């Protein structure tokens, strides 16, 4: 999956519009890549100043050198996140990248403007050197631990809440209103989606593959990821920046991880079911993901539903669950994130 270069005009057919979906968090590897791009920029303002200071202190010189090459400012980064998909676990994501085909690595390196001056630890990547691949993984992990891992539980909770709001905005305001309210430079001019990106402008036809919409807390503007194959959906990434009122709670010193507090409150399995619901999993998917029986997954979902934490609907033979505002607040560490979709408080 490659980020399309240039001020690109994407053509959406009726089939594409029928397959526009808002999906859950991209995962920790994608957020790490966006985070490293964010470290290069100086236009973030006070919202992320605390995060930037802490991250730069934690980042090792070797890790910073490699990642500066992988995420060049204002250019297309090495698309590790697309290879790993939306894997919610950083170890699984890195293992996928570690075993990626050599041809994929060579093709990705060709997209980088600095490919001829590779940093020493990864200089052998283009030659299929295993040690260089391991050095790449070590650098990515170091950057993840410096920039994302200390805040991941709160970042994930913020992204889950913002995903719900994005779905509501898309349903009520359409694609044009969504892009405007997310404060992006992208514009929907039916049937065209204009996306300002580095490089030369061109036209891209989605060809009926549809559009998956994600949000990222580190993305500064709209991004479009273009699949390399002819079957996968295009991916639209919108910024999900916390506002100045909620940012301090997101970037201050990490507290006890949210999942531990949830487990203490609900029990470990039920807490895991609630988190799986937030990732968009149905009953059968929850059972497979957690290694429990479908009956057990259904029972836990029933308790969560009766507690007002989730709502359940059925689509043919599939049972779908969605977090309520209370469930989102619980996953968010007990704070309700205020957005312009929320009604004003009354007395």
Automatic annotation (TrEMBL):
Residues 260-335 form the HTH arsR-type domain. Keywords: DNA-binding, Transcription, Transcription regulation. InterPro entries: ArsR-like_HTH, HTH_ArsR_DNA-bd_dom, Metal_resp_trans_reg, WH-like_DNA-bd_sf, WH_DNA-bd_sf. GO terms for molecular function: DNA binding; DNA-binding transcription factor activity. This is Winged helix-turn-helix transcriptional regulator. It comes from Nonomuraea cypriaca. The lineage of its organism: Bacteria, Bacillati, Actinomycetota, Actinomycetes, Streptosporangiales.
